[in-house]
């Protein structure tokens, strides 16, 4: 059983006080029965000590022992009750004796500590059933008037079982169930936090590496199309581009199994739109930035990042224009990719897997949660993505990368009918330089105007390979 700790000793002391002090009360003290009272007190103290110590291992049996011993002594009660209109004497409710407080405390403890409530329920059912059967039998076969034992013992005993046993046990069981529920919720929250962190790290690795592989494929495509290189060098550059595309696809498949589509930041939180554009331009993407590139809005930065990543993957060499317009009501971010009829097709071995980011559907939902409007579709033979964002984001949208789970994204409404998937147009030359006049100017050939491509507004930018 082990040595009792301080709490158990304090509990024993407090529960023994009523048993020790009750015989000293003037109403209960009778000199003729003094020795009987002393022996009764000693028995009650022994029962209480043994029950408290045993309740640490088996809380139900000590509760039943104290409950039966306490309800047997019905000389005093907390109240009296009488059936009005019936010729029956009154009876005491909730017998009061030296074991009453111990019965209440141990019943509550049994409700809180017992892992299975069924044994206690069966014990209460047995006690109450025995008492009810005794009352019924004495009432039916006790003569014209019920036997005095019904009101003198059985009804007070039944009230003691209900009020000092079943009621505090039920309260303790309720506390236990609530504590277990809170524990389950904390464990679930901790597990979800670990999964979110793991998925965030996985997503961040996937997006960062996928973005770098797309830029590697872009540089390899530029080398493959360079006329001043020997044929074998251009062939090697083509093989490098194809290998980067295959690696991107394998990376998406492998890490996609481990994550829950929980978006993570592609760029550091302090990075601005111009930083994103400069990094893409330094990798060889023909990109031009117009307007205020110092914007650090996370949603606008994500729109630019995703658009440039898909342009680099699906249209290496095509010129891209990023325009940021600020106003009193909000900010408009527009990413445009013009194309010619000759550059509609996919280059041999170009990257075809889905992007590491969120795609058009995810960007539309992100912009909507930020309180803005998102548009994407064909324009003048090319493709344009437009996001209109309010000046102040709604609370919590800055943390969307860490909190938004892909499983919880609402379905994106589609307008119109299904149309062919979009392929980013390609140009035949690439290269870029950063000017110091406040914008990034592309050096590639200007793309000619071509026929317009159909696009579903809910289809991802990264579905050029036919995947939705």
Comma- or semicolon-separated keywords:
468 residues; alpha+beta; Heat Shock Protein 90; five-stranded mixed sheet
Task: Give your account of this protein's structure.
The chain crosses the membrane at residues 36-54, 120-141, 153-175. The chain is 50% helix and 11% strand. It has 468 residues and is an alpha+beta fold. It has 2 domains: 6-189, no CATH class; 267-468, Histidine kinase-like ATPase, C-terminal domain (Heat Shock Protein 90, 2-Layer Sandwich), CATH 3.30.565.10. The strands form 3 sheets. It has a 5-stranded mixed β-sheet, with helices on one face. A two-stranded antiparallel ribbon has the order 1-2. The chain has a two-stranded antiparallel sheet with strand order 8-9. Helix 2 (34-54) runs antiparallel to helix 3 (60-72). The radius of gyration is 40 Å and the shape is rod-shaped. Mean pLDDT is 71; it is low at 260-267, 340-358 and 393-468.
Write the layout of secondary structure elements.
Elements lengths: L5 H16 L12 H21 L5 H13 L4 E5 L9 E5 L4 H14 L4 H24 L6 H78 L5 H28 L14 H10 L4 E5 L6 H17 L5 E7 L3 E8 L21 H11 L3 E7 L2 E9 L9 H4 L28 E3 L5 E3 L26
Parallel strand pairs: 3-4
Antiparallel strand pairs: 1-2, 4-5, 5-7, 6-7, 8-9
């Amino acid at each position: 059983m082990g040595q009792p700790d301080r709490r158990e000793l304090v509990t024993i002391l407090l529960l023994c006080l009523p048993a020790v002090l009750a015989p000293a009360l003037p109403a209960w003290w009778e000199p003729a029965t003094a020795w009987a009272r002393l022996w009764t007190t000693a028995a009650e103290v022994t029962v209480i000590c043994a029950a408290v110590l045993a309740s640490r291992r088996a809380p139900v049996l000590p509760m039943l022992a104290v409950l039966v011993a306490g309800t047997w002594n019905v000389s005093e009660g907390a109240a009296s009750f009488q059936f009005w209109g019936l010729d029956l004497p009154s009876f005491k409710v909730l017998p009061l004796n030296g074991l009453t407080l111990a019965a209440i405390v141990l019943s509550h403890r049994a409700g809180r500590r017992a892992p299975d409530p069924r044994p206690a329920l069966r014990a209460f059912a047995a006690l109450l059933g025995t008492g009810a059967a005794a009352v019924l039998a004495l009432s039916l076969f006790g003569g014209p008037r019920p036997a005095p034992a019904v009101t003198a013992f059985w009804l007070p005993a039944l009230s003691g079982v209900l009020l000092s046993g079943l009621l505090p046990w039920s309260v303790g069981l309720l506390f236990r169930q609530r504590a277990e529920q809170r524990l389950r919720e904390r464990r679930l929250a901790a597990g979800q936090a670990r999964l979110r962190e793991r998925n965030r790290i996985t997503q961040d690795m996937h997006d960062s590496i996928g973005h770098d592989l797309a830029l590697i494929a872009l540089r390899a495509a530029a080398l493959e199309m360079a006329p001043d290189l020997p044929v074998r060098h251009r062939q090697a550059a083509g093989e490098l581009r194809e290998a980067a595309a295959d690696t991107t696809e394998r990376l998406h498949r492998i890490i996609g199994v481990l994550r829950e589509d929980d978006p993570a930041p592609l760029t550091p939180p302090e990075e601005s739109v111009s930083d994103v554009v400069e990094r893409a331009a330094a990798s060889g993407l023909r990109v031009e930035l117009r307007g205020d590139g110092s914007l650090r809005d996370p949603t606008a930065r994500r729109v630019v990042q995703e658009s440039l990543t898909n342009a680099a993957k699906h249209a290496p060499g095509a010129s891209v224009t990023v325009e940021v317009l600020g106003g009193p009501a909000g900010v408009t971010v527009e990413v445009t990719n013009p194309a010619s009829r000759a550059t509609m097709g996919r280059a041999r071995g170009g990257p075809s897997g889905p992007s590491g980011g969120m795609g058009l559907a995810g960007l539309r939902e992100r912009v909507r949660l930020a309180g803005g409007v998102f548009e994407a579709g064909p324009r003048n033979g090319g493709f344009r993505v437009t996001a209109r964002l309010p000046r102040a984001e709604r609370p919590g949208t800055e943390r969307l990368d860490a909190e938004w789970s892909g499983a919880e994204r609402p379905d994106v409404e589609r307008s119109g009918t299904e149309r062919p998937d979009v392929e980013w147009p390609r140009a035949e030359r690439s290269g870029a330089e950063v000017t110091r006049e406040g914008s990034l100017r592309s050096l590639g050939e200007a793309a000619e105007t071509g026929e317009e491509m159909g696009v579903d507004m809910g289809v991802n930018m990264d579905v050029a390979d036919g995947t939705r």
